[in-house]
């Protein structure tokens, strides 16, 4: 098997500069296929009904949606092989949005860890405030107002209306 070292060197140069060219549709299709596989795996954990009636169980609708997503992703994947230069995008690894996305993921992990310790109220206000700071909202009044309002709306909808228990400390 002969290896084309020119192609490898081309991508090495692109990666050294922090750039790489990818096909948007193909990348999105592969991501959707991965997410649909993960979702299907999660539906296998749904409880099965134990009666003899031919009743649709809880996994039916999610699996139907996953099937639709898989078919759509496959169509998108095969259409992405058409030679279309307008469908290319460049990932610049030095772009500031990438560190913001990574920081947002770390804040989400921190939220999950701190939720039982601090309670829903404080953890949610901190989580939303830090996310807004990361994504360049600098008005402290807006940050506080939005964080408290979203926390109260979620509390009203889930705790008062839907009777979902949340790890509350003060409300």
Largest sheet, strands/sense/barrel: 2 strands, antiparallel
Q: What is the arithmetic mean of pLDDT?
A: 80
Q: Cα distance, first to last residue?
A: 67 Å
Main structural class: mainly alpha
Number of helices: 6
Strand content: 5-15%
Provide the helix percentage: 55-70%
In the predicted model, the low-confidence regions spanning at least 5 consecutive residues are: none
General form: flat
Using DSSP, what is the number of strands? 2
The secondary-structure element order is HEHHEHHH
Instruction: Please list the strands of the largest sheet in the order they lie side by side.
Output: 1-2
Radius of gyration: 23 Å
What does this structure look like?
It is built from 6 helices and 2 strands. By secondary structure, it is mainly alpha-helical. 5% of the residues are buried. The chain has helices at 5-16, 24-43, 60-79, 96-118, 120-134, 140-161, and strands at residues 19-23, 88-92.
Properties at a glance:
mainly alpha; single chain; 171 residues; flat; 6 helices
Question: What's the short version?
Answer:
With 171 residues, the protein is mainly alpha-helical.
């Amino acid at each position: 098997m002969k290896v084309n070292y020119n192609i490898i060197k081309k991508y090495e140069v692109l990666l050294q500069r922090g750039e790489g060219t990818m096909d948007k549709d193909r990348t999105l299709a592969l991501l959707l296929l991965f997410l649909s596989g993960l979702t299907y795996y999660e539906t296998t954990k749904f409880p099965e009904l134990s009666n003899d009636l031919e009743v649709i169980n809880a996994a039916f609708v999610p699996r139907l949606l996953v099937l639709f997503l898989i078919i759509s992703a496959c169509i998108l994947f095969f259409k992405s092989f058409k030679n279309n230069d307008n469908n290319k995008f460049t990932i610049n690894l030095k772009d500031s949005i990438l560190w913001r996305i990574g920081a947002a993921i770390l804040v989400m992990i921190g939220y999950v860890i701190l939720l039982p310790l601090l309670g829903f109220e404080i953890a949610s206000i901190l989580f939303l405030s830090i996310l807004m700071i990361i994504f360049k909202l600098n008005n402290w009044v807006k940050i506080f107002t939005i964080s408290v309002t979203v926390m109260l709306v979620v509390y009203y909808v889930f705790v008062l209306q839907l009777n979902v228990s949340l790890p509350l400390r003060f409300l």
